[in-house]
Amino acid sequence: MIRTERLFFALWPEPEQQKAWAAMASELLPAGGGRLVPAANLHMTLLYIGGVGAEQCKALKAMADGISFSPFVLRLDKFGYWRKPRVWWWGASQTPEALHGLVGSLQAGARRCGIGIDPRPYKAHMTLARKVVRAPEQVDIQSCDWAVDHFALLRSVSTPTGVHYEPLQYWSAQQKG
Q1: Residue 1: is its pLDDT beyond 70?
Q2: Number of H helices, E strands in the chain
Q3: Residues 6+ apart with CB under 8 A from 40
Q4: Which residue ranges form the domains of the chain, and what is each CATH number?
Q5: Smallest Cα–Cα separation from 153: which of 138, 136, 174, 170?
């Protein structure tokens, strides 16, 4: 039997950011309103890969080695709610071109590695809570500018206490100029 791991590429915040954003979500989500994502799991998925074996994982890492992108600022300024999966999220009203380019490069590279890609357009969002019964009331917040200078390949690990994400490798942006 071939061992597979569930993988995805993501923007992976610094631990201080994760803690601050989790605290914000905890303050804004009404008690009993849903299950908050643990601070250490907060991230923004760039491309979900799914279950792959060691050879495909190696190919994905090699593919990502060839991706070049510039650092960018992602303004998180919008909350949203998806009723069907019952997810409350925080995202961007405007997706920077650099982020679209990074996602496009990852998608094209994953296809070359034999990975099927979700055909829906990319939506920059961070899941804050799951199993949310109804959308939280309109939330007024100041926007948050996230300076992005790297992305990561992460592994999803199921444990008796829940799922957690482990970064396998990071890739840094290249300064232009």
Answers
A1: no
A2: 3, 10
A3: 15, 18, 164, 165
A4: 5-172 (3.90.1140.10)
A5: 170
